[in-house]
Write a structure and sequence with these properties.
globular; mainly alpha; Arc Repressor Mutant, subunit A
Length: 77
């Protein structure tokens, strides 16, 4: 699956699959951006279209992890 900034939920799910044990609250914006553009299948510009994209992805990643949705989402990717 190709990942782009337009599908932030898929990016969050891919982050959960690739980095399930990461302490998400301690991530800085620069590190989060590096992790996103390093994801397999990420196929977009290395800069988000809006700074709020990173915040949305981070909070979606946290929600997926907390909701236990990670397993289902990981299987889809």
């Amino acid at each position: 699956m190709l990942l782009s900034w337009s599908n932030q939920t898929a990016i969050a799910a891919a982050l959960l699959a690739a980095h399930p044990e990461t302490e998400r609250l301690s991530l800085g914006r620069d590190r989060l951006l590096q992790m996103i553009v390093a994801l397999p299948g990420f196929n977009d510009k290395p800069v988000p279209p809006q700074p709020a994209c990173l915040d949305h992805i981070l909070w979606t990643w946290m929600r997926l992890a907390d909701d236990g949705c990670g397993e289902k989402e990981r299987r889809r990717i």
